[in-house]
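Backbone-to-sequence.
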């Protein structure tokens, strides 16, 4: 009897730990907005491409809680950005415990899934199973 109780406690504790470690994708939304630069990309075959320098960064802006835009920006030494008028509009959807972003331009539409979004990191997987790890962009400090 005591062994059954111990086993039940162990099972309940394990389930509680696993459940508490699971991320709620809705919590990612608050961290998406901002300036991001690619740190590395892990391809489906396992190869990794590290990015030590980025000449462009991604700017993500939410217009409301579920819609927004993403633009490519080119930082300059003056602390400002060069950009075009081009922007990718997107819609956020929570589906099957995942946070998906549906992008649309005049030329294409696609989906990416956010695997992680924190104050400092953004991790996204695309339809080719390439995982992009972004870090929060910090401007160059030349002082």
């Amino acid at each position: 009897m005591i062994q059954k109780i111990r086993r039940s406690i162990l099972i309940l504790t394990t389930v509680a730990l696993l459940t508490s470690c699971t991320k709620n994708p809705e919590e990612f939304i608050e961290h998406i907005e901002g300036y991001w630069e690619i740190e590395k990309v892990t391809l489906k075959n396992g190869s990794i491409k590290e990015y030590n320098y980025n000449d462009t960064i991604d700017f993500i802006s939410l217009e409301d809680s579920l819609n927004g835009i993403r633009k490519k920006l080119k930082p300059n030494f003056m602390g400002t950005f060069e950009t075009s008028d081009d922007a990718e509009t997107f819609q956020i959807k929570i589906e099957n415990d995942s946070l998906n972003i549906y992008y649309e331009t005049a030329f294409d539409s696609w989906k990416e899934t956010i695997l992680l979004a924190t104050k400092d990191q953004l991790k996204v997987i695309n339809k080719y199973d390439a995982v992009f790890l972004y870090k929060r962009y910090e401007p160059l400090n030349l002082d």
